[in-house]
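Input (structure):
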């Protein structure tokens, strides 16, 4: 990667994403693009296509995830699957 490459980090505010952004900045990469969940819904195909068409990043780091731990996984067993399935069918 060139130091001026446009780099999109999905999930930049999470544990892994913040580490990626920090390490990129430490190594001198400054053209880092980020979007919050409210700015870009990664499960919405049209939003993602619009984003990539507009921003045209050279590199993408995908660190975005839905997390909730054991309790959330036990309480909402099918909700994540259904959310992903909903967008895949459309």
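Output (sequence):
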């Amino acid at each position: 990667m060139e130091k001026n490459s446009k780099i999109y980090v999905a999930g930049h505010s999470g544990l892994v994403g913040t580490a990626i952004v920090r390490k990129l900045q430490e190594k001198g990469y400054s053209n880092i693009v980020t979007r919050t969940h409210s700015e870009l819904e990664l499960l919405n195909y049209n939003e993602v296509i619009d984003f990539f068409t507009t921003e045209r990043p050279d590199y993408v780091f995908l660190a975005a995830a839905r997390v909730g731990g054991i309790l959330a996984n036990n309480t909402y067993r099918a909700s994540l699957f259904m959310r992903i399935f909903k967008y895949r069918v459309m």
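Notes: Helices lie at 15-26, 45-55, 69-75, 79-89. The two ends are 35 Å apart (CA to CA).
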